[in-house]
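Working notes for the structural subgroup meeting. M.R. asked for a predicted model of this chain before we commit to crystallization trials. I am recording the input and output together here so anyone reviewing the notebook later can reproduce the run.

Input as submitted:
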Amino acid sequence: MPVTDVLTDAENLTMTVIADFAAPIERVWNAYADPRQLERFWGPPGWPATFTAFDHTVGGRAQYTMAGPRGERSSGSWEFLEIDAPRGFAVIDSFVDDDGKPLEGFPAMRMTFAFEETADGTRMVNTSYFDSIESLEQVIQMGAIEGTRMAMAQIDAVLQDLRDYAQGKGTRVELLDDTHVRITRLVEGSRDLVWRAHHEPELMRQWLLGPDGWEMTECVVALAPGDAHRTSWAPVGDTPGEAFGFEGEAVLVDAPRRAVSTERMQGTDGPETLNDLNLYEEDGATLITLLIEYPDQETRDMILATGMADGMEASYARLEAGVLAG
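Returned structure, recorded in token form:
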């Protein structure tokens, strides 16, 4: 994880983030100077950012919106005060509404980003300056420290070519906190086709089967928010096991990039998870990222202990060798 420290200073009214990257200073600068790269890590997992404006000049403005998994929105803007490529820049960071107007009751702060070369790559020192202790405490209470750590943990996938970052590493499971798990898998194929493979029943039946010896017996796909989904599986022949299935509702659908849905075992009241699927394509390969929110740590550990990750890897391998290869 790139973040090495987050320091708050009540006397000087600052919050400082220190991060070390295994990449040259020019590569790190480009990640912050290109909105398409920046939006891949600026929002924490589950709250991806979209920059709708980015005038990267002194006096210019940038505006972004982070979209939560349940339809929540949080927007911000930068006014660029200084730009010194590739060594750093400074902005006024404000909470704004969808029209870019500052929100009442929320602090604006000056932020500086300083980049320096190190023996192993680049160190970033990001300092936010507040005008009162109340503003500093407000941002901390809003989860800025943990949110920053989780957001910055995504930058490695941006600084490396996608294949260098994920190819050959299979299905990776990361425990982000007590209730959030991030699962990633790189597959060779276009994002459009990977999206279709997740949302067209005839394609889903070819790969979304888990270990060998199972078949999909029911497949109802949710294509719009509020739609119900339902999927069932059963063992074939002498394969051990009992039929089971999941059901839930779509919460957000942004084809072919993102789909968020609830999920629970069929015929039960829970426990229910929130599954946030994101697809990112680079040079003909697609990174599948599934962020799962569990109701509590006990449920998280119970479900992971079922061998879920192994079953997902078997399915992803089948997806790549079958649907995407054809």
